[in-house]
Amino acid sequence: MTQAKRKKTDKSNLQAEREALKADIRKGIKKYEVVESEEEEVPQMEQPQELDKKRLKVLVDLGYPLDYIVNTLEQNCANYCLSAYYLLGIDQNY
Asked: Would you say 52 and 89 are in contact if contact means Cβ atoms under 8 Å apart?
Protein backbone atom coordinates (compact mmCIF):
# COMPACT_ATOMS: atom_id res chain seq x y z
CA MET A 1 0.00 0.00 0.00
CA THR A 2 1.38 3.37 -0.89
CA GLN A 3 1.71 6.14 1.62
CA ALA A 4 -1.00 8.23 -0.04
CA LYS A 5 -3.54 5.38 0.20
CA ARG A 6 -2.51 4.64 3.80
CA LYS A 7 -3.01 8.28 4.78
CA LYS A 8 -6.39 8.33 3.04
CA THR A 9 -7.59 5.17 4.82
CA ASP A 10 -6.24 6.40 8.16
CA LYS A 11 -8.06 9.68 7.65
CA SER A 12 -11.32 7.95 6.73
CA ASN A 13 -10.96 5.60 9.73
CA LEU A 14 -10.49 8.58 12.02
CA GLN A 15 -13.52 10.30 10.55
CA ALA A 16 -15.61 7.15 11.00
CA GLU A 17 -14.47 6.78 14.63
CA ARG A 18 -15.20 10.45 15.27
CA GLU A 19 -18.71 10.15 13.86
CA ALA A 20 -19.35 7.00 15.93
CA LEU A 21 -18.22 8.82 19.09
CA LYS A 22 -20.46 11.78 18.27
CA ALA A 23 -23.42 9.42 17.83
CA ASP A 24 -22.66 7.74 21.18
CA ILE A 25 -22.46 11.12 22.88
CA ARG A 26 -25.77 12.20 21.39
CA LYS A 27 -27.39 8.96 22.59
CA GLY A 28 -25.94 9.52 26.06
CA ILE A 29 -27.27 13.05 26.20
CA LYS A 30 -30.75 11.89 25.28
CA LYS A 31 -30.50 8.95 27.67
CA TYR A 32 -29.37 11.01 30.65
CA GLU A 33 -31.35 14.20 30.62
CA VAL A 34 -30.39 16.83 33.14
CA VAL A 35 -33.13 17.41 35.66
CA GLU A 36 -33.06 20.54 37.76
CA SER A 37 -33.42 19.73 41.42
CA GLU A 38 -34.12 21.84 44.44
CA GLU A 39 -31.21 23.87 45.64
CA GLU A 40 -28.97 21.93 47.96
CA GLU A 41 -26.90 23.46 50.67
CA VAL A 42 -23.26 23.56 49.75
CA PRO A 43 -21.12 22.57 52.72
CA GLN A 44 -18.83 25.37 53.78
CA MET A 45 -15.27 24.80 54.86
CA GLU A 46 -14.64 25.31 58.52
CA GLN A 47 -13.69 28.83 59.36
CA PRO A 48 -10.47 29.22 61.33
CA GLN A 49 -11.12 29.88 64.98
CA GLU A 50 -8.27 32.33 65.27
CA LEU A 51 -6.29 33.97 62.51
CA ASP A 52 -2.55 33.43 62.72
CA LYS A 53 -1.08 36.84 63.46
CA LYS A 54 2.33 35.92 62.03
CA ARG A 55 0.82 34.97 58.69
CA LEU A 56 -1.34 38.10 58.71
CA LYS A 57 1.73 40.25 59.32
CA VAL A 58 3.59 38.62 56.43
CA LEU A 59 0.65 39.24 54.09
CA VAL A 60 0.36 42.85 55.24
CA ASP A 61 4.09 43.25 54.64
CA LEU A 62 3.54 41.88 51.13
CA GLY A 63 1.07 44.71 50.50
CA TYR A 64 -2.36 43.22 51.16
CA PRO A 65 -4.66 45.44 53.25
CA LEU A 66 -5.60 43.79 56.56
CA ASP A 67 -9.34 44.28 55.96
CA TYR A 68 -9.03 42.55 52.59
CA ILE A 69 -7.17 39.58 54.12
CA VAL A 70 -9.73 39.11 56.89
CA ASN A 71 -12.65 39.46 54.46
CA THR A 72 -11.07 36.94 52.08
CA LEU A 73 -10.55 34.43 54.88
CA GLU A 74 -14.08 34.86 56.23
CA GLN A 75 -15.69 34.41 52.82
CA ASN A 76 -13.24 31.70 51.72
CA CYS A 77 -12.66 33.48 48.40
CA ALA A 78 -10.34 31.66 46.02
CA ASN A 79 -7.58 34.16 45.31
CA TYR A 80 -3.86 34.72 45.78
CA CYS A 81 -4.31 36.18 49.24
CA LEU A 82 -6.12 33.10 50.57
CA SER A 83 -3.62 30.79 48.87
CA ALA A 84 -0.70 32.68 50.37
CA TYR A 85 -2.27 32.55 53.84
CA TYR A 86 -2.65 28.77 53.72
CA LEU A 87 0.75 28.22 52.10
CA LEU A 88 2.39 30.20 54.87
CA GLY A 89 0.88 27.72 57.33
CA ILE A 90 2.46 24.67 55.69
CA ASP A 91 5.58 23.24 57.30
CA GLN A 92 8.38 24.25 54.96
CA ASN A 93 10.99 21.94 56.50
CA TYR A 94 10.10 18.82 54.57
From this structure: yes
pTM of the model: 0.48
Residue type, 13: N
The CA distances from residue 41 to 1, 19, 44, in Å, are 62, 40, 9
- Rounded to whole angstroms, the maximal C-alpha distance in the chain is 73
Higher pLDDT, 19 or 31: 19
Rounded-to-10 torsion of CA 51, 57, 63, 69: 10
Environment class of 51 (CB within 10 Å of its CB; exposed 0-12, middle 13-18, buried 19+): middle
Measured distance CA(71)–CA(60) in Å, rounded: 13
Rounded to a whole number, what is the distance in angstroms from the first to the last CA of the chain?
59
Q: Which DSSP symbol is given to 43?
A: P
| Mean pLDDT over the full length of the chain | 78
Half-sphere exposure of 23 (CA within 13 A, CB side): 6
